[in-house]
Design brief:
- About 30% of the residues lie in helices and about 25% in strands.
- It has 15 helices and 29 strands.
Length: about 575
């Protein structure tokens, strides 16, 4: 017998309600039949180098970078996508005057970079090589302040202490998905930092370490990520192998080729960008340094029978921290006092300058800015000879008061001053190695005269006289090398002042690596420069022309290349 109209309406309402309940119900737990797919978002930065504010401390002006902008973007993503992780690939606590002040001058106060990362809500970070620059006690203080794990799977510690040891990985559950985050750092740290900055630690091979951990993490997690402070090891456009200074330094591509258990590798160190490249099924991504861009990775996962999730799609992109992203006021307020203290420090006047000094030609001829570094190293190192490089040819000092900011623009690395004993043969070898920075003259018209060598690896010497003959092939260019007016003998002993990076063999100056130290200053070279200028009161602008490039035509061609002569104006005459 058929029910009444009222009964049919009740049954219809019940069925509609049941259908709505099924449609609107949350996804079933992992492993249950019919469960919906889940999307996981991973955001990442690398080589932040102390940039919190959108500000260039060396130029004293705003810039599109920094953790305050990253914070704004992270909040936007988290609002639309709660299943989000935020990671960093190292070289984070060093690089700006702000970072330096709170590592060296105010170490007992909370470090503003760590405080900003805590506030933004980082989930994990891989330690970088520059985290070791200020010594272990500074690193341990920052590690203690961080509310996120700092990972280093390839660092073997003898301390057996939670504060000093580095966790190899961390496991997170996000939206029901189990995520393993493995962290590593380039093992080249002992080449660049003095022994006391890494005593008690052994740095192991990246590929072998990834091979050791990835299979086990694959069994424990649905998604396995590697954050590594190491470069690609390939050209970022052609992906052809690069001629690396140290084969162990940049291994991201090698890891992807040999460790297929990884879902993605987010890497850094080389200050390049890679929006996404899949190698052997592993997604490779690198955001821009100084928090100028954020890597955004998306993983779509489907449930597996018997439990767990499987990655069925993955994609990545880079998001620029440009003018469209305002700085997060919360981060600015949190670090404002530190920023203002840094600005007061940078605006401190240390000397006066009578003439403009422009560094564009300072790698091509004896120059007052380089000679300033040399004189400082000779004085404080009590040395016979000094070896120094110019870090940037964009440095320009205007006549008038010279401030700490100006000195930072000239010398922005955290190096110490060492005086070592070397022979004349070692010094000649170092200068020959440096002179490979140029191509052999003559070079084709319009072609670059510079070899594919970083400019900061071109060292110049003070305390000797010499010429660089570019008409000769590399290795045969240093001529008329003299010390105190006489030819420098190969076995002659010299006290050589140089920075700690060169002493460690940095830039592949292997002939100077771990030379016998006869004197050492614990202060940074930049601090010594500041002391020297305060003592002098005025910037010396004269040079002794102790070295030059020959032939003269090659020198002039180089000068014209970096600063082309102004074109003649029609209708004018020199008469």
């Amino acid at each position: 017998m058929r029910g009444s109209t009222r009964d049919r309406k009740l049954r219809g309402s019940f069925l509609v309600g049941l259908w709505l309940a099924l449609v609107l119900a949350p996804s079933a737990p992992a492993g249950l039949a019919g469960a919906e797919r889940v999307t996981l978002t991973v955001l990442a930065t690398t080589d932040v180098h102390g940039h919190v504010w959108p500000y260039d401390y060396l130029r004293g002006q705003e810039a599109e970078r920094g953790l305050a902008k990253v914070s704004t973007y992270v909040q936007r993503v988290r609002r639309r996508q709660p299943n989000t992780l935020l990671l960093d690939c190292g070289d984070t606590f060093q690089g700006t005057p702000l970072a330096y002040l709170y590592a060296e001058k105010h170490p007992r106060e909370p470090h503003p970079v760590v405080a900003a990362m805590n506030a933004v809500g980082y989930d994990a970070m891989a330690v970088g090589n520059h985290e070791f620059n200020f010594g272990l006690h500074a690193l341990w203080r920052m590690k203690e302040q961080a509310r996120f794990p700092i990972l280093g799977a390839n660092i073997v510690s003898t301390y057996h202490d939670p504060l000093r040891d580095f966790k190899p990985y961390v496991l997170r559950t996000v939206g029901g998905v189990r995520v393993a985050i493995l962290g590593m750092v380039t093992p080249s740290i002992p080449r660049w930092d003095p022994p006391e900055h890494h005593v008690g630690y052994e740095f192991r091979d990246l590929v072998e370490t990834a091979r050791r951990y990835a299979p086990e993490l694959r069994r424990q997690a649905d998604v396995v990520l590697l954050i590594v402070h190491s470069g690609l090891g390939r050209d970022s456009e052609t992906f052809e192998p690069r001629q690396e200074l140290y084969l162990e330094e940049d291994r991201a591509w090698d890891i992807a080729e040999q460790v297929p258990e990884l879902d993605a590798i987010i890497f850094g160190h080389s200050h390049r960008e890679l929006a996404g490249k899949t190698v052997n099924g592993v997604l490779l991504v690198q955001p821009k340094n100084w928090a100028q861009s954020v890597a955004e990775l998306e993983f779509v996962l489907a449930p597996e029978e018997g439990g767990g999730w499987q990655v069925v799609e993955k994609r990545s992109r880079l998001v620029a921290m440009d003018v469209s992203l305002p700085a997060d006021q919360k981060i600015l307020d949190l670090t404002r006092a530190a920023h203002q203290r840094t600005e007061r420090y940078l605006n401190t006047v240390v000397a006066e300058l009578d003439l403009e000094l422009d560094a564009r030609s300072a790698r091509l001829e004896d120059h007052p800015l380089v000679e300033l570094i040399q004189r400082t190293q000779l004085q404080y190192g009590r040395a016979d000879v000094s070896l120094a490089a110019l870090f940037s040819t964009r440095t320009r000092w205007e006549p008038g008061p010279i401030t700490v900011r100006d000195v930072y623009s000239l010398y922005f690395y955290e190096n110490q001053l060492f005086t070592v004993e070397v022979t004349g043969a070692q010094l000649r070898e170092a200068l020959e190695y440096s002179a490979r920075s140029f191509k052999t003259y003559p070079w084709p018209e319009g072609a670059s005269p510079f070899a594919d060598v970083p400019g900061y690896n071109f060292d110049m010497a003070q305390g000797v006289t010499y010429e660089i003959d570019l008409s000769q092939p590399p290795g045969q260019r240093i001529v008329n090398l003299e010390f105190q007016g006489a030819p420098l003998e190969p076995d002659q002993k010299l006290r050589l002042a140089l920075n700690s990076y060169r002493w460690s063999g940095g830039g592949a100056y292997e002939m100077l690596r771990h030379a016998r130290i006869v004197r050492r200053d614990e202060r940074q070279v930049r601090e010594l420069l500041l002391n020297y200028l305060l003592e002098q009161g005025k910037i010396p602008t004269e040079v002794d022309h102790n070295w030059e490039i020959i032939p003269a035509e090659a020198r002039q061609a180089l000068l014209d290349y970096v600063a082309p002569p102004a074109p003649a104006v029609a209708g004018t005459s020199k008469n």
